[in-house]
TrEMBL record:
<dbReference type="InterPro" id="IPR018159">
    <property type="entry name" value="Spectrin/alpha-actinin"/>
</dbReference>
<protein>
    <submittedName>
        <fullName>UTRO protein</fullName>
    </submittedName>
</protein>
<dbReference type="InterPro" id="IPR002017">
    <property type="entry name" value="Spectrin_repeat"/>
</dbReference>
<dbReference type="Pfam" id="PF00435">
    <property type="entry name" value="Spectrin"/>
</dbReference>
<feature type="coiled-coil region">
    <location>
        <begin position="3"/>
        <end position="64"/>
    </location>
</feature>
<keyword id="KW-0175">Coiled coil</keyword>
Length: 254
């Protein structure tokens, strides 16, 4: 009777493993929304816990069969053979479910990381757009134009590392057929805005550089003219002080 019960327990354990394999490993999952992916991750975590909890039952079966083998070698030997098959299948099931759980957790982490990089780069684009708008109505003054140019250039020096991460993470998920529609839409919108704002900012940078150059040249010309007028003023003042007749002065002084 003991052997019969143990044989029944082994059969039930094998049946449970077959059902678990069908439910957790043989389904074709399609992750088209973050909610579906998150639910799949949580389900696989529960599956892993469920399978690992059966380890206690497997150990009890193993101990009982060993004990029976010492008392009834013939029955114990037959059960030991069946036990080895169950143990191999159980270990294989554990490894596969652990592997799938780890993969899904990595995929979810990849998705969250992609969102974080998109948030960072979107904040940078917002800042860039704000700086570009601030250069729209500048006073025609050297300091104002120079400050605006330096401010814009400081934002444009933003490293490209985050965009590289966005491209690689997005492509990894799309290649795996995971959230591909959502990610493609997000990347398309981000890239379009990035290209538009980058071109606008660079064009504005060039315009500011040209405006700054013109202002510097004008400022230099004004300084030269001011120095020349100062020299002339001192010359005329000396003529007046010395009471020199206008007809005795050089033509330019007259």
């Amino acid at each position: 009777e003991k052997a019969v019960n143990l044989k029944k327990d082994l059969a039930e354990m094998q049946e449970w493993m077959t059902q678990a394999e069908e439910e957790y490993l043989e389904k074709d999952f399609e992750y088209k929304s973050p909610e579906e992916l998150e639910n799949a991750v949580e389900e696989m975590k529960r599956a892993k816990e469920d399978v690992l909890q059966k380890e206690v039952r497997v150990k009890i079966l193993k101990d009982n069969i060993k004990m029976l083998a010492t008392k009834v070698p013939s029955s114990g030997q037959d059960l030991a053979t069946e036990l080895n098959v169950v143990l191999e299948n159980y270990q294989l099931l554990c490894n596969r479910i652990r592997g799938k759980c780890h993969t899904l957790e990595e995929v979810w982490s990849c998705w969250i990381e992609l969102l974080q990089y998109l948030d960072l780069e979107t904040a940078w684009l917002n800042n860039l757009e704000e700086r570009v708008q601030m250069t729209g109505n500048l006073p025609d003054k050297l300091d104002a134009v120079n400050d605006a140019l330096e401010s814009l250039e400081s934002v444009l020096r933003h490293p490209a590392d985050n965009r590289t991460q966005i491209r690689e993470l997005g492509q990894t998920l799309i290649d795996g057929g995971i959230l591909d529609d959502i990610i493609s839409e997000k990347l398309e919108a981000f890239n379009a805005r990035y290209e538009e704002l980058s071109h606008l900012a660079v064009s504005r940078q060039i315009a500011l550089e040209q405006q700054l150059q013109t202002l510097r040249e004008t400022d230099h010309m004004l300084q030269v003219l001011q120095e020349s007028l100062g020299d002339l003023d001192r010359q005329l003042t000396s003529y007046l002080t010395d009471r020199i007749d206008a007809f005795q002065m050089p033509q330019e002084a007259q």
